[in-house]
């Protein structure tokens, strides 16, 4: 395993973060692994040297956090655990979502309970809350850090101007600032290169892209994308604009280079991200131990500058996707 420092936090994380949306409860999403398989995935990740895990309160309605917490028993100190809040957890209770002080404090306590932990290493806001002033959210997050419930705070997909506003508000008010950005970024979706990634670079923010394999679109020829259970059943795979613009041509180039190098398409797509200076650690989602091992092996793939240029060349700007 290779390790890096997460933004300006000083925390060392593996260059692969295990995405824990893949396990919890298959009643939530059909393709999601149940408890025993989820724990086996975490166990293998630990053996491979993965020390960074990303979950969220909403994944399988809390089951992902509960399973991750149990799977990390005996390994808590050597792991770096990230979770998120924002999406409404109880449809009858509007205060179980959003980023008000009440929602943050309650959801943080619920996450700590499910994880069975006293502190969360990275507590992230899953989206921007248009109903709550950012100062209210930051004050509640800052208190959580001061109370020792959270070590660092992070943000996820939002407009660059919102992220800049939040960083500025923290500096102005003397609050802890967002240390990380978890955004939508992969070879088939590169709109983040316009504003958010340069902002993160300038501000020393740790970048941890979600859906680094475009939810599977970059792991097999585009005509076979629905060949797996997730490919067949996950609506997000079709909502994101991977098939638009130069997407199919990018997919074909990934396949061609993978063939040339004798590796898998998923490994080329990850290797491309590992070669991007502004990325700290992609959050890899998988339901397969073998695919997790592929991801680790991809760290050894050397791409030349002309490989990178060739992979990127067909990309065309597409509509923004991942936040509103
Ligand atoms: N902040 C946010 O709003 C947000 C949004 C989405 C996701 N996330 C985070 O990001 C993580 C990853 O997201 P994701 O699962 O959507 O995206 P992903 O990593 O881009 O894609 C996962 C898909 O790729 C396939 N795959 C992975 N490795 C493969 C390999 N070696 N060969 C063939 N297929 C392979 C998986 O299939 P198999 O299961 O068969 O391996 C799965 O269908 C999540 O777990 C979550 O932690 C955050």
TrEMBL record:
Gene3D superfamilies: NADP-dependent oxidoreductase domain. Residues 15-313 form the NADP-dependent oxidoreductase domain. Pfam families: Aldo_ket_red. InterPro entries: AKR, AKR_Detox_Biosynth, NAD(P)_OxRdtase_dom_sf, NADP_OxRdtase_dom. Keywords: Oxidoreductase. One of its GO terms (molecular function) is oxidoreductase activity. SUPFAM superfamilies: NAD(P)-linked oxidoreductase. This is Aldo/keto reductase. It comes from Halorubrum kocurii JCM 14978.
